[in-house]
Design brief:
The complex is a heterotetramer. By secondary structure, chain A is an alpha/beta fold. Chain A contains 18 helices and 20 strands. Chain A has three domains: about 240 residues, P-loop containing nucleotide triphosphate hydrolases (Rossmann fold), CATH 3.40.50; about 180 residues, Rossmann fold (3-Layer(aba) Sandwich), CATH 3.40.50.300; about 80 residues, no CATH class. In chain A, strands 6-7-8-3-9-10 form a six-stranded mixed β-sheet, with helices on both faces. The radius of gyration of chain A is 24 Å and the shape is globular. Chain B has a six-stranded parallel β-sheet, sandwiched between helices. Chain B is an alpha/beta fold. The longest helix of chain B is centred in the middle third of the chain and has 17 residues. The structure holds adenosine-5'-triphosphate (ATP) (2 copies) and magnesium ion (2 copies). Chain C: Its main location: membrane.
Chain lengths: ~500, ~300, ~325, ~350
């Protein structure tokens, strides 16, 4: 049978970076094709070329055996290609309905169309069991719901070839499962699907064939049935990946952080956090599990000083955290950092880095006052050396401190942020979604760093929606739902079903 | 030999529909009659005025005319440096043995048009549109009001200023809007002393069938039949005379205040407004004119004590 | 002072008459900025279209040719701005300011070159736009209030005034209820999303700038052909910046922007009325201080009542397909 | 193609020169249409603005004020704030300076008067910027709107103050009295007589120092780092513990103070009195300078000198060539801003093509 998509010797260069080099492989019609590879391997670039977003320097793309020159996304859409991008492509201040209609309005006047499209969307939502309100504004939606909007968009446009670039990076297990149900339905309808993911289990679960890329080249293409996680990981990273990282025995020290009766209400008096209480000790990792949007972000922000709690007693190393008598959190994170609290924010692009700054400047962020001399100036020689050391230790690639950090792959940006926070030698480390969108090789190294930190006696609070990650790192697990802590488990009691129930708000008495 | 002559306009520029333009016209007349050329430049700031004056003085000009009070300090300074060069300063008083300062009694001319306005007005409500609220403009307003009140004590004068920045001299829309709003309050004669903005005032007066009064040069021809008269300030004559005196070797330094008597200011009566000026108005205005020249009527200059008696 | 001294009727009529200059320009800015292109060059476009429309109206003795010519020139300038902002991906503020400065100089030079009247065009005389007299105005004129309302507040303005006011609901509809508006907003908010959805971002922005250019031309034509009856150098006198202010003030939304324009018009008119008038408590405010009334009010309203302004997110950033 | 692929010498020199030439070419066309010889005019322009030492003195004198307003706009821009209010801030700064001089010029010696003038100008400039800064920081009122409004308000207020309180009795000029001779910036022609009678004064040196300080502070200091972080990503700034509202207010105070300092050059360096609308657009030119100079100290200096040269050269040219009105140079200024500031990469594709052909 004619393959639905065939890449022939595609090459693409960005400045000095060869993002794609002589990439050739084909994708059978009506199949789900996995695409894996390290951060920066060139997966997104390749898909962007297929979607008309970039133009290849050389090479050819064939659809159904026909050579096509796809120069714009409009052309790609016309050829029946749909794409769910790695970073959401939604207009935040518009409704779901408008986002779906954008580019496919069906006439100059929207009013008439809006009603029909809304009805269609509701029908699609029922059919595919997608929980989305067409009239909701995107900005109000959780990441998972936004992901569903992206899917909804593609269903509405009935794309024949659907590209999904890391769609599961921000989804919970349940959300992923229901996405996969939809993909299977698509497959039955004869659609071709290309799925990019860093989670090898997902590749095994759903794809038919899988292509592995490294350094812009295709390393291998294998039928999924005949491969294993270990083999794929090995192909990706070029070395075996250790699943169970070694760690010292659990010997928690003195309490570092005690949270009692923490409450948070927003300006509209909506209760975002209620009755939160826990203790975090030196040398332990406590993970907070839960579906995203259940208050984890707010809790982290409060602990990092980025937000004020409504009430509550927060004791850190025997003294109360300095929220008192402030009316906003302006500048508070600095005071927290000085107390020895480090913070890896969960939205690294928004909070953690300044995209237009170089990597070196980003290693200063948050510690600018520590690094200045008594004239208030930076010693850039020393800072460059510090940055070089940090990039080496945390294996940031490419190891060029003068590069704009926006040009680094997500995983490498994350390494820079973690390195910066670790280097501050904190006593308490707050870590939000440390491996979101990060490849397995990098996950391994980030996990290793976090465990080393724990073994060195740092108290770590981890927020993650990845139960795999929670299992790999945590000593204790708190589960949050609806702004409350619904349960606590020791790592030995780790049990996916029970955590799932707690995440859904089901208390087990 | 022919004298070498120069003019330095102030920030308004030679087309400001006001004293700069008037100076330009006087110089042009001189040039036409004598075939003697003159150099002209515009100084956009006080610093530039000094620079321009010095630049011209170095070219060994015989006479440099500085237009506008903003150049007072600059003239004083440069005149000291170049005692051989002669200067004439319009609208300001500068010290120096080689400087002739010419000021005008704007209040006297304004008084006359105030008389005419009060008589021509049916509603006995008069308007005044000024450019920026500065003493010079207030002197116009104050003279105008004195003339009007002397003619008809109950007359009411509504005053508005266009703005506070340089744009206030070039905003005909606002000039027109001020006139409109005055008309809506019953005004039927408006005196526009606002450079280019005043053109908007006069235009609106014509449009609304009311009367406007022009300023500086004779603006009667702009809208014949709807411009009652113009308060002419003969900067052109002052420049023309200076140039002529220079040519004839009769030029003298000193301070000249030119009023009605000296022909420095006047009202304008020509074929364009002949029909508007009834014999009664003409008689009354000419009477006032004579009284002022004879010293029987003393028009108070706002600038003298920074206040207006009416 | 009594209430009658305020001349509220006159103030309202004056507001209606003054607002169009700002409304046209502010709506123009709205289209440009909603598509993601900062339009600080309104002032220059107003001035250019004012000059061209006056010059052409004078030369042809037909105001409509003037309006059309102004439209062409203002649109051409908008296209230049678009070329700079969209194709060249240059700094949009620089491009706009360059146009403002260049036009301030060029209109004078051309006006002087062609007409020799010191940067002024000759008086347009009959070549001005007519005022609309509503049918039956004369009949109702003497009826208290209603007569004034019908014949003076609603009726008796230039056609461009009606166009300006009609524009507001139209712009609202286009921005929020048409395909053009949907794509426009998407381009200004998240051009990458628009592009991924198959919208040609650059084309959309060019179109938006074209609309902006055309709308802005009316502002200049109104100044020259309707309000003044001639062109005078620098006669825009900051209207472009004020329009931009009204737009920011209105949070880039058509109706609020319109209210902003009315507010400037209204307080401008009030300021005229209270100049030289004995006010309760404060007494007679000196003329130069009165001039600041509209601006002080704006600051107070902005600081006191309005929520934070939220500009279109992609405003000012050229669309480059890369992260 | 990609602009980043261009070698440094091309972006730093070849492009700006080509852009300047393009602007000059269009300008030459206009001059030709006005009936004058473009080459001769350019010659006069160059001679009068740069080659002739006295002309250069004037060029640098004008540039000194522009450096300050350019810095004022630039530093606010670093924090993502578009301060359109430098015009008003410089105007109000002039009032501060004048009040200080009126109070002390008969009692204090020059060495004390100059710091007093600088302090007065900076203080009042900052004062005029502090309300917009405060409103932006605490109420989120858009700085563009508030600073435009404050320009208008300043014009009215100054009009009132000058006319009502500062004009000496019996004077026509709408200006304060002239200060005593002690209240004058030392002129550079004392040391460089070749400069002739130019008002170029030590403000120029202060401007150069200010540029250096600005450069060091913005790109090498912790405070500058915070400033730029606020401008580039306010979320990250909050995360980094930078006090956003304090930063906004502080930088607006500094911006206003810098604009205010511009008045020291124009008043104490030349006129020695405060006059109505003495700023004459220097604040707005500061915006163009900051944008064209890319907020970089060297860029600001070069653009300021370019504008100074145009103003200075433009005068002499319009003196020599009566057919070319001074306004032509306003048009040329606009062209230069357009070509050098907004279309800076216009020739980049061509240069890349040429380079490629040479290589290949
Ligand atoms: N627009 C661009 N400009 C410069 N370099 C780029 C650009 N886009 C991608 N790159 C570089 O190309 C390489 C491939 O990037 P790409 O985004 O395709 O990787 P990826 O496999 O999708 O990685 P990830 O798993 O992190 O999503 C990286 O080194 C990246 O830094
Ligand atoms: N593509 C993305 N990559 C990385 N992070 C993202 C992405 N999209 C969104 N985020 C961030 O992920 C976080 C999760 O948001 P979400 O709203 O789902 O729940 P939450 O953060 O747990 O809680 P809350 O909604 O109450 O803040 C947000 O901070 C969001 O900004
Ligand atoms: Mg990717
Ligand atoms: Mg990724």
């Amino acid at each position: 049978m004619q393959p639905a998509v065939e890449f022939r010797a595609i090459s693409k260069q960005f400045g000095a970076v060869q993002a794609n080099a002589d990439v050739s492989f084909s994708i059978a019609k009506g199949s789900i094709h996995g695409l894996v590879g390290e951060n920066g391997a060139g997966k997104s670039t390749l898909m962007s070329i297929l979607y008309g977003y970039y133009r290849a320097d050389s090479g050819q793309i064939l659809l159904d055996g026909q050579a096509q020159s796809i120069r714009t996304s409009q052309e790609a859409i016309r050829l029946g290609i749909g794409m769910v991008h790695q970073h959401f492509m939604l207009v935040e201040n518009m409704t779901v309905l408008d986002n779906v209609m954008l580019g496919a309005e069906g006439g100059f006047k929207l009013a008439a169309q809006r009603a029909t499209v809304e009805a269609q969307l509701r029908a699609i939502c029922t059919r595919y069991r997608l929980d989305v309100d067409p009239l909701a504004t995107i900005a109000e939606l959780s990441v998972g719901a936004q992901q569903r909007v992206e899917i909804l968009k593609q269903i509405y446009r009935s794309a024949n070839i659907l590209i999904l670039d890391e769609p599961t990076a921000v989804l919970t297990a349940q959300e992923t499962a229901s996405l996969f149900d939809i993909l299977r339905l698509f497959k039955e309808q004869g659609k071709t699907i290309i799925l990019i993911t860093h989670k090898l289990q997902e590749i095994l679960d759903i794809t038919d064939t899988v292509t592995v890329m490294r350094g812009g080249r295709v390393i291998g293409a294998v039928p999924t049935a005949g491969t294993t996680k270990e083999e794929l990981a090995n192909m990706m990273v070029g070395r075996p990946i250790e699943n169970n990282l070694p760690r010292a025995p659990y010997h928690p020290g003195a309490p570092v952080l005690t949270v009692e009766n923490l409450q948070l209400q927003d300006a509209q008096h909506v209760q975002l956090l209620a009755d939160i209480g826990f203790t975090l000790r030196a040398g332990e990792i406590v993970a907070i599990a839960g579906v995203s949007g259940n208050g984890q972000s707010e809790l982290m922000e409060i602990l990092a000083g980025m937000r004020l709690p409504t009430t509550g007693k927060l004791t850190y190393l025997g003294q109360e955290l300095p929220y008192g008598r402030r009316h906003d959190a302006d500048g508070l994170p600095l005071a927290f950092r000085e107390l020895g609290i480090a913070h890896v924010p969960e939205d690294r692009l928004r909070d953690g880095v300044v995209k237009s700054f170089s990597v070196m400047h980003n290693t200063i962020l948050g510690y600018q006052d520590k690094l200045k001399n008594r004239w208030g100036l930076f010693d850039f020689k020393a800072i460059a050396a510090r940055c070089a050391g940090l990039m080496k230790k945390f294996d940031v690639r490419p190891a060029n401190g003068d590069l704009r950090i926006g040009l680094l792959s997500g995983g490498n940006q994350q390494k820079v942020v973690i390195a910066r926070e670790v280097l501050a030698q904190p006593k308490l480390m707050l870590v939000g979604q440390p491996t979101r969108g990060v490849d397995i090789g990098t996950i391994e190294s980030i996990h290793t760093q976090l465990l080393a930190l724990r073994d060195a006696g740092v108290a770590i609070l981890l927020v993650s929606v990845e139960l795999e990650e929670v299992r790999a790192l945590a000593d204790r697990i708190l589960v949050m739902c609806g702004g409350r802590i619904t349960g606590e488990l020791k790592i030995e009691e780790f049990d996916t079903t029970r955590i799932g129930l707690l995440m859904g708000g089901m208390h087990k008495s | 030999a022919d004298p070498k002559l120069g003019i330095v306009y102030d920030a308004g520029g030679k087309f400001d529909k006001s004293f700069n333009q008037s100076a330009f016209e006087g110089a042009s007349r001189f040039k036409k009659e004598t075939n003697i050329n003159f150099i002209e430049v515009q100084a956009s700031s006080d610093t530039q005025a000094e620079q321009m004056l010095r630049g011209l003085a170095r070219k060994n000009l015989d006479l440099i005319a500085s237009i506008g009070f903003a150049q007072t300090q600059a003239v004083q300074k440069v005149a000291k440096e170049f005692p051989k060069v002669h200067f004439v300063l319009i609208d300001g008083v500068a010290q120096g043995a080689n400087v002739n300062s010419v000021t005008f009694k704007e209040e006297e001319g304004s008084y006359l048009v105030g008389v005419a306005a009060a008589m021509a007005s049916k509603s006995k409500k008069l308007g005044f549109v000024g450019g920026i609220d500065i003493p010079l403009i207030r002197a116009f307003a104050c003279g105008y009001e004195q003339g009007a009140k002397a003619t008809y004590p109950k007359v009411e004068v509504i005053q508005n200023m266009v703005g506070t920045t340089a744009a206030a001299w070039n905003d005909p829309a606002k000039g027109g809007e001020l006139a409109r709003s005055q008309f809506e309050r019953g005004v039927d004669v408006v005196f526009a002393v606002a450079g280019g903005s005043g053109l908007g005032t006069l235009q609106t007066a014509k449009e609304k069938g009311k009367l406007g009064i022009g300023v500086d040069s004779n603006q009667n021809h702009l809208y014949p039949g709807s411009i009652l008269t113009s308060m002419v300030k003969r900067v052109d004559n002052a420049i023309y005379d200076s140039f002529m005196q220079m040519k004839n070797g009769t030029w003298k330094a000193g301070v000249t205040a030119k009023g009605l008597k000296e022909g420095g200011v006047d009202w304008a009566l020509d074929e364009n407004n002949r029909k508007l000026i009834t014999p009664e108005i003409e008689k009354r205005v000419l009477g006032a004119r004579k009284d002022i020249i004879d010293g029987k009527v003393k028009v108070i200059d706002y600038r003298a004590g920074n206040h207006c008696p009416v | 002072m009594t209430f009658a001294d305020l001349h509220l009727d006159s103030v309202l009529v004056s507001t209606v008459r003054n607002a169009p200059v700002l409304i046209f320009a502010a709506m123009a800015g709205l289209f440009a900025e909603r598509s993601g292109v900062i339009d600080i060059g309104l002032e220059g476009k107003i001035l250019a279209s004012a000059f061209v429309s006056a010059a052409v109206a004078f030369a042809t003795q037909n105001p409509w040719y003037g309006v059309a010519a102004g439209m062409a020139v203002s649109a051409a300038l908008a296209m230049l701005q678009a070329y700079v902002a969209i194709t060249q991906k240059g700094n949009q503020l620089v491009g706009g300011i360059a146009i403002n400065i260049a036009m301030s100089g060029l209109t004078f030079v051309l006006a002087q070159f062609f007409f020799q009247q010191g940067g002024r065009t000759p008086d347009l005389g009959q070549a001005r736009l007519f005022d609309v007299v509503l049918p039956g105005s004369a009949a109702v004129e003497h009826i208290p209030f209603l007569g004034w309302l019908y014949a003076h507040l609603i009726g008796g303005h230039s056609v461009l005034v009606y166009l300006a006011f009609a524009l507001v609901p139209l712009v609202h509809w286009v921005i929020y209820h048409s395909r053009f508006g949907l794509r426009l907003r998407a381009c200004g908010e998240n051009p990458h999303a628009a592009d991924a959805a198959g919208v040609n971002v650059e084309r959309q922005r060019y179109l938006a700038m074209l609309v902006a250019g055309v709308l802005c031309s009316f502002s200049g034509a109104y100044l020259a052909i309707v309000q003044s009856g001639f062109f005078l150098r620098d006669m825009s006198a900051g209207a472009g910046y004020l329009a931009l202010t009204a737009m920011v003030f209105g949070n880039w939304r058509p109706v609020y922007t319109f209210l902003g324009c009315l507010m400037f018009g209204f307080f401008g008119a009030v300021q005229i009325q209270i100049e030289g008038v004995e006010l309760p408590v404060v007494g007679r405010i000196p003329g130069s201080l009165i001039q600041m009334v509209p601006y002080v009010v704006t600051v107070i309203v902005l600081a006191g009542l309005m929520a934070k302004s939220v500009a279109p997110k992609a405003l000012g950033t050229p669309f480059v397909k890369s992260r | 193609m990609n602009n980043h692929d261009l070698p440094r010498w091309a972006t730093a020199f070849v492009l700006p020169i080509l852009n300047l030439l393009s602007a000059m070419l269009v300008a030459a066309g206009v001059i030709y249409l006005l009936g004058e010889s473009p080459t001769e005019s350019l010659g006069i322009l160059l001679h009068s603005a740069i080659l002739n030492p006295e002309g250069l003195g004037y060029t640098l004198f004008y540039a000194s004020s522009f450096v300050f307003t350019g810095l004022s706009v630039s530093i606010a821009m670093q924090a993502g704030l578009f301060n359109i209010g430098s015009e008003g801030q410089m105007y109000f700064g002039g009032l501060g300076l004048t009040l200080a001089m009126l109070a002390f010029d008969s009692t204090l010696p020059t060495w004390a008067l100059i710091p007093a003038a600088i302090a007065g100008a900076a203080l009042f400039g900052a004062l005029w910027a502090c309300v917009p800064g405060y409103l932006q920081a605490k109420r989120g009122s858009h700085i563009v709107v508030t600073t435009i409004m404050f320009n208008f308000i300043c014009a009215s207020l100054m009009n009132f103050i000058i006319v009502k309180y500062l004009i000496p009795a019996g004077e026509q000029n709408t200006a304060s009295r002239a200060f005593s001779d002690a209240a004058a910036m030392p002129l550079l022609n004392q040391w460089f007589p070749v400069l002739g009678e130019t008002p170029l004064n030590i403000s120029f040196l202060i401007a150069l120092v200010a540029l250096v300080i600005y450069g060091v502070v913005v790109s090498r200091s912790a405070w500058g780092f915070k400033l730029r972080t606020v401008g580039q990503n306010p979320h990250a700034a909050h995360y980094a513990g930078i006090r956003l509202s304090k930063m906004i207010i502080t930088v607006m105070l500094i911006s206003g103070a810098l604009a205010g300092l511009g008045s020291v050059n124009s008043i104490l360096g030349s006129t020695h009195y405060l006059s109505l609308n003495f700023v004459g657009g220097a604040g707005f030119i500061g915006i163009a300078i900051a944008l064209m100079g890319r907020q970089h100290p060297l860029g600001i200096l070069l653009s300021a000198v370019l504008f100074g040269a145009l103003i200075q050269g433009g005068f002499d040219l319009s003196l020599e060539k009566p057919n070319i009105p001074t306004e032509t140079f306003i048009f040329i200024q606009g062209l230069i801003i357009l070509f050098c500031g907004a279309m800076e990469y216009f020739y980049a594709p061509a240069i890349i093509a040429v380079l490629k052909r040479k290589k290949g």
